[in-house]
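Trying the structure run again after the queue cleared.
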Amino acid sequence: MKKLLLVFVVILFFSCSQDNKVPGNIIEPVRMQELMWDLFRADAFITNFASKGDTAFKQLKESVILYRQVFEIHKTNKEEFKKSLDWYQLHPVVMKRILDTLQGRQSKIMQERSKPVTTPPSDTLKI
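Done. Tokens:
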């Protein structure tokens, strides 16, 4: 009975680990993380700078342009991104790793920005 339980646990372990292996037709996690980071930055740019006072249609048009540029930079397209995002949403363990890394990256940037600006000491040389 113990051997059967051990075999079951080993099979369960390998099936779970194989389930989170990223297939070849899906954007790998590091690339997906960089792609999502740039898409988030594009959204922030549109929200905070590019679209102040613009209509919703113009904002949408700007975001489409920026998204295309991000996809070109990362040598991918909307369809490949969508297919990959769908896969990651079905594999929350892998998606959580990506999102945690992005959150850590953002937190680090926010910490850097919140550091007080120090001014160099004034020159004490009297002339």
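The helical segments are 2-19, 29-50, 56-73, 78-90, 92-114. Worth checking whether this holds up in the mutant runs.
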